[in-house]
């Protein structure tokens, strides 16, 4: 049996579209704001300061906090109430950011948005797992991810479109409207998938028990740390990429340039789905990290001889982020391999812990921006090297 019966299931196409929208709200909330960062900086008296990057980083911090809680919470109160709570917190966070006049208020709103977003992001996976299994589940997840990949490519253009007609505050209004649409759609069309008799009491003790299991297992801990290092690279990129386009005098093509890079990340994920059964996750991780290190080192060496022009830097981002796209899914899957007995909460906590690792390092990479791409390339180099070292440490256990 590969799919599980519900009393009133919705059509598969509608279910896939709804789950993709729930997952994509995270990307939309990050990437749609990127074109507006300079305007927000002026409004909040932070023009010319790297501090404005914290608008991106703070949402990731909220995601880390939320991921730690929602998996267990949804096992206790059901999937639908947990999603309602998350979308409500996200909506309130958007309101706080909409009315923000100073950076701390903006960051508080972004933190609240991140905590709220963790619910649809995490629980959508639980909903798929509740209703499908085996090859059918894999097929549904593939369809969801195919739709999800499109959103990061178009989100900056949506944000730029809002800026043509209104100021940056209306991007938060747009995000609020999308959240309300998802809430109404989810409320009236998606049935509850976790019956009352299958629910488990909420327990912080259970959370800490699984964290201790992750920390006590070299494979789980090692790959979680590597996932955090790779996420640091990605967060540093997201935080400073708009400033890099602006510094090179190419701000007007930011939306299109970012879309091209995002599509390369998505294409890497699709390629990985095709080759992972042939080559294996560990092989792909080692090759991708090795390529990331070599490309970063090569570019840093080139920068010592001559100034890197814009298109040369863009080639670096395309190659490097293609490698990052190969890494994301594999690293999380490898971290989860020893945690099959606690797969649900284990997945949430691996995601949470890796995000907690990524936030301070991603902020450090982003705040190092000096008007060139060199600090970001250096960040790619350092964290790919640290990741390779961690892979070696995992292998010392005889399990890597």
Automatic annotation (TrEMBL):
GO terms for molecular function: transmembrane transporter activity. The keyword Methyltransferase does not apply. It is a multi-pass membrane protein. InterPro entries: MFS, MFS_dom, MFS_trans_sf. The keyword Transmembrane applies. It is found in: Membrane. Keywords: Membrane, Transmembrane, Transmembrane helix, Transport. Residues 15-399 form the Major facilitator superfamily (MFS) profile domain. Its main location: membrane. It comes from the Bacteria. The chain crosses the membrane at residues 12-32, 52-70, 82-105, 111-128, 140-158, 170-188, 219-241, 253-271, 283-302, 308-329, 341-367, 373-394. GO terms for cellular component: plasma membrane. PANTHER family: MAJOR FACILITATOR SUPERFAMILY, POLYAMINE TRANSPORTER 2-RELATED. This is Multidrug effflux MFS transporter.
């Amino acid at each position: 049996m590969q799919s599980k019966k519900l009393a009133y299931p919705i059509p598969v196409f509608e279910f896939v579209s709804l789950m993709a929208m729930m997952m994509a709200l995270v990307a939309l909330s990050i990437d749609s704001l990127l074109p507006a960062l300079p305007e927000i900086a002026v409004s909040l008296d932070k023009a010319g300061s790297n501090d404005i990057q914290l608008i991106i980083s703070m949402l990731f911090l909220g995601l880390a906090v939320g991921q730690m809680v929602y998996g267990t919470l949804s096992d206790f109160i059901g999937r639908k109430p947990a999603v309602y709570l998350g979308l409500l917190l996200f909506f309130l966070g958007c309101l706080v950011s909409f009315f923000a006049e100073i950076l701390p208020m903006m960051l508080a709103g972004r933190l609240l948005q991140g905590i709220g977003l963790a619910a649809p992001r995490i629980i959508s996976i639980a909903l798929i797992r509740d209703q499908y299994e085996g090859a059918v589940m894999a097929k549904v997840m593939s369809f969801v991810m195919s739709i999800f990949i499109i959103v990061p490519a178009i989100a900056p253009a949506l944000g730029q479109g809002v800026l043509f007609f209104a100021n940056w505050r209306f991007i938060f209004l747009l995000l609020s409207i999308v959240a309300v649409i998802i809430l109404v759609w989810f409320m009236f069309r998606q049935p509850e998938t976790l019956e009352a008799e299958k629910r488990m009491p909420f327990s912080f003790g259970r959370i800490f028990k699984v964290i201790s299991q992750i920390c006590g297992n070299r494979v789980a801990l090692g790959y979680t740390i590597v996932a955090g290092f790779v996420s640091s690279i990605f967060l540093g990129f997201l935080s400073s990429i708009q400033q890099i386009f602006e510094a090179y005098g190419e701000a007007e093509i930011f939306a299109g340039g970012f879309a091209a890079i995002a599509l390369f990340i998505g294409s890497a994920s699709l390629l990985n789905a095709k080759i992972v059964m042939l080559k294996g996750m560990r092989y792909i991780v080692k090759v991708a990290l090795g390529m990331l290190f070599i490309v970063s080192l090569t570019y840093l060496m080139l920068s010592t001889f001559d100034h890197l022009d814009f298109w040369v830097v863009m080639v670096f981002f395309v190659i490097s982020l293609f490698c990052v796209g190969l890494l994301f899914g594999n690293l999380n899957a490898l971290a989860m391999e020893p945690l099959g007995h606690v797969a649900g909460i284990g997945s949430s906590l691996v995601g949470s812990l890796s995000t907690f690792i990524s936030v301070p390092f991603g902020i450090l990479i982003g705040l190092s921006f000096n008007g060139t791409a060199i600090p970001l390339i250096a960040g790619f180099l350092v964290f790919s090297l640290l990741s390779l070292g961690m892979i070696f440490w995992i292998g010392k256990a005889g399990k890597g």
